[in-house]
Description:
β14 and β15 (296-302) form a beta hairpin. This protein starts with 10 loop residues before the first strand and ends in a 14-residue tail after the last helix. It is globular and about 70 Å long. It has helices at 93-105, 118-121, 146-165, 178-196, 213-218, 238-243, 248-254, 265-278, 309-317, 321-330, 352-365, 387-407, 424-433, 448-456, 473-476, 488-500, 503-519, 522-540, 552-560; strands at 11-12, 18-19, 28-33, 39-42, 69-75, 85-90, 108-112, 127-130, 137-142, 201-206, 226-230, 259-262, 283-285, 290-293, 296-302, 338-345, 373-380, 415-418, 436-439, 463-467, 481-483. The chain is 39% helix and 18% strand. By secondary structure, the chain is an alpha/beta fold. It contains 19 helices and 21 strands. The structure holds adenosine-5'-diphosphate.
Amino acid sequence: MRPNEERASPTTDLRGRTSRTELSVPGELIVASNRQPYRHEYVSAPPAGRRPSDEAVSDSDGTATDGGFVDVGRNRDTQPARSEITVECPTGGLTAGLDPVLSRSGGTWIAWGDGEADRAVADEDGCVRVPPGDESYTLRRVWLSDAAVDGYYYGYSNRVLWPTCHELLEYVDHRPDDWTWYRRVNREFADAVVDHASEDAVVWLQDYHLGLAPRLIRESVPESVTIAQFWHIPWPRPSVFGSSPLETTLLEGLLGNDFLGFHIEEYCDAFLATVDSHLPDASVEYASGTVRYDGTETRVGATPMGVDAETYDRQSRALDGSRWESIRSRYGIPDDVTVGLGVDRLDYSKGIPARLDAIERLFERYPSRREAFTFVQKATPSRTDIPAYAVHGERVREAVGRINDRFGTETWQPIVYTEDVISREDLCALYRYADLLVVSSLLDGMNLVAQEYVASSVDGEGTLVLSDRAGVASSFDDAAYTVDPTNVDALADAIDEALSASPLERHRRMTRLREHTFARDLEWWMTRQFEVISRLHDHEHPDSETAVTDGRNHLSDDANEPATDADSSNSPSC
Length: 574
Ligand code: ADP
């Protein structure tokens, strides 16, 4: 069934997000992720130091995107002695998308309890019923010490796994205890899952923080339990894996899954080849994307993740020009200049320095762009406790200063650089009214910003310059100006070409980008994931109606097909 064929009347959830489909969830659902869907905080509590969850943006899976968490209500009855407690929830991304699914199906969500008041509202097992006011599933919190967070999150996850998977080994910083913490925290998550797993359970793990948990869970639950995971970042080539400090134990951990999902086929192939060359006892069947190892059969498949396109579209349409005018005046952008845009976490994988070099090259090669084009770079500091991130932030700021000093005039700044926290409305206004978005990631699992830009480009006037190493590039094809992000000259030329495109050409390209973005949105992605998981789960439960069919393409086929008219029937034109 095509995703859009299932669409019923829209319903609106707590966050104002529109949901159209009733996903069919097999068995008893247990989701596990680093981030939690609800966080409890003391209203009057002073900030207790920065936590990873304070970052305005996500790790990779969009779980804390769109400005992070929003206050959704207060629980005045709890902890009156200390202060009021407020409940916050993320306003976008996967967490916001999954929450209504669990609300409908019931089940359990296991995540790190990082809120100051999380313990105060949880029972002795760390459980609290959510969503607030409409309690329908259990949030089970895993408690982590500061040392655990430093070793597991800031350590192994983000100093070793992140740079290795992005094939940027020069950023790997392997501290001796981090691997131990990663194993311990994965054990904590696995134990929590086991506590809640009945014979009919379906466990769905999210991302690279939980690479060892699947096998640990597998060893302690009935065979009938289905375990699946989505890996939201790239998977490196086997040679890169071999040159990194990554342990084969990680491969063994991931092969505890019945299903392991990646965004694109390239990452699936790299994973299979890595297993093939580094785990001699595993048997890899490339055609069907199946690995057999230590009694488990793992299916590997690609489903590119999308964004909540309709919500971006709706919020962009609701804007009037005044918000854009106020942004222009806030940042001193003259009315008659065209505007390019970059929106990124300050992460070395995003290729911001080469992008800035390309802007500089643009002004060198095409002098007519001077005083006629301004590039707005919205950057969000991220993982600043990790030295490589702090150094990278400095490098970016210095490059901005250099270019502005070189070309700026009294009335025009070539680059407007801001680390301000901006509202969702301002983000939509930037997306809708900027003439161009540049995504120049050196490697990127998918890149949600590119899709958000397209979904918000309701006038059809924007253009997208896109790294050929972003996962989304394989979906967008030549509708974007696709370019090697390390080739500064080519990047400068692509920016100039995109800015020079006729209104007709822009419209033509944007229409195609929008068709794809709406046909392959977040809901489509979740539907596909649950379809695959259902088939595997039904296979373990022979009395069920459907059965798993062999073949990699059967698991991931729709992900690789071009969007059809039926898929895109709901995509609003620009
Ligand atoms: P990554 O997950 O590696 O950060 P993505 O582009 O896939 O990269 O996702 C980033 C998410 O964070 C998007 O949903 C985007 O809206 C949000 N985001 C990124 N930068 C900012 C920013 N400066 N301000 C607000 N939101 C941002």
